[in-house]
């Protein structure tokens, strides 16, 4: 098994790097999109619930079905894979961002407003820091989820560790299956442990 | 000079049988220490919050130094008014120092001036700066938190202070001390204070004039002595009779102010 790794390190690490890149690109775009959507949702609880419902419905669609729907529009590879992964993350991220923001005690918001904070100052100086633990938890979940779903995206030519796993399955190559699995678990694990640590530090 | 004036201000919340503010008109001169007295739910907090536009009245006008507050940007308005919220509302993710520095940060004071003022205010509310400035609100008692709330509102030396039951969580002994301290701060500052309380003794002790409210209406607005000698109606009469030592203090000529 290790000799396999030594022999095919280039291929395995290349796929690992590719996978990491997909996860990071997805995460980057997801967080920006979720932040923008959440900002506009701050004023209305009704709209918030509706949007979360919609993304929760999207989240429940199997990834293969979503890929199939988008391939005719966006083509094979990352062009389809990343938008789908970003869409999935919206549910995890927006749900956690908004619940974190809504949990902030009303009296704190009133104190801030009463002292003359603008809406933006209230959001950035009071609500956001207090919602941080919940937001980081959302990011952690979405990294784990993206790492997993990105494996499936290999079936539409998105590359990454899924490619190794798929070809391992096709050729019944146990080493490929093993290493594909181990490396994707490593990504999820690092993200999980790292962000849990960050969460703890924020919670103090 | 008139600092705050309310003219026929009305405010009703949905589902309430009486108005939270029922045609309230009142003129407050600069330098007064007005206490607002009334039982829970009578509209004291609502009155305070219409002055810094946390609530908009249904009708009527409010003037701050002659200017209709409707014509002032609410954020600017609030920065010029000190506000102690009834629920204390300290920010749990900030140290005592940063909590007190909230308004200085909004006003972009430099760090040296901010630190100096934070320490001054901490001493003013009888908390040792070295011991308390780096603590978090969760490491403070309820009374200590309220004192930080008071320091936070006082720091920019606003011309008008709105204090909503600022000593509600403070024990009797420290309360007495803080009342005296606040009275001194007020006397030295020539600022205008509006101080909400449901404690009759506190209202009479601190107020240069007292507003007595019930069900959204102002029943009487007068000095302690006037209220004792000429209560406006039965409600006021019964109210002051419940606290005999209050009337004793004032009728026997001890003005206590
Ligand atoms: N934001 C609000 N929404 C609905 N009702 C409110 C609101 N604020 C106050 N009220 C109602 O208005 C009345 C006066 O409240 P308040 O001014 O807080 O009284 P006080 O401060 O004298 O205890 C109460 O009956 C209260 O329930
Ligand atoms: Mg109140």
In short:
The complex is a heterodimer of chains A (204) and B (257). Helices cover 87% and strands 0% of the residues of chain A. Chain A has helices at 2-7, 9-41, 45-60, 63-74, 78-102, 106-114, 119-153, 161-171, 174-203.
Could you name the CATH homologous superfamily of the domain at 1-76 and 190-257 in chain B?
P-loop containing nucleotide triphosphate hydrolases
Name the strands of the widest sheet of chain B in spatial order.
Answer: 6-7-8-3-9-10
Quaternary state of this entry equals heterodimer
Give the helix proportion of chain B (percent range): 25-40%
Could you name the CATH topology of the domain at 1-76 and 190-257 in chain B?
Answer: Rossmann fold
The share of residues in helices of chain A is: over 70%
Shape of chain B: globular
Q: Kindly state the number of beta strands of chain A.
A: 0
How many structural domains are formed by the residues of chain A? 1
Give short descriptive properties of this protein.
heterodimer, A: 204 residues, mainly alpha, MetI-like fold, 9 helices, B: 257 residues, alpha/beta, Rossmann fold, six-stranded mixed sheet, four-stranded antiparallel sheet, 12 helices, binds adenosine-5'-diphosphate, binds magnesium ion
